[in-house]
Design brief:
- This protein is mainly β and 87 residues long.
- It is built from 1 helix and 5 strands; from the N terminus they run αβββββ.
- The radius of gyration is 21 Å and the shape is globular.
- It comes from Streptomyces lichenis.
């Protein structure tokens, strides 16, 4: 057997990711400010994460992982002790 031919690598054309959002009206995209308003595709509270139809992974600590690999740090709302009310 020719060892050089057994080491060849075959490349395949890159596939484009189709949008997971197939319903109308379409959900906000992963790069929009309201991305968390997208529909749930998978919900795993025992593991602490949910997958939205725009490809965003939302974690129970309010952190997010976008489809392009960008990380959004947790952004919990302020507690009531830190909120000021108008007089």
């Amino acid at each position: 057997m020719d060892s050089a031919s057994s080491r060849r690598t075959h490349t395949t054309p890159q596939r484009k990711n189709r949008s997971m959002c197939q319903h109308q009206p379409a959900c906000p995209t992963a790069d929009s400010a309201d991305r968390e308003a997208a529909r749930l595709l998978a919900h795993h509270p025992e593991q602490g994460w949910s997958l939205l139809c725009n490809g965003v992974l939302v974690f129970e600590d309010t952190g997010e992982l976008l489809p392009d690999g960008q990380i959004i740090a947790p952004h919990r709302p302020l507690g009531t002790a830190q909120v000021m009310t108008a007089a």
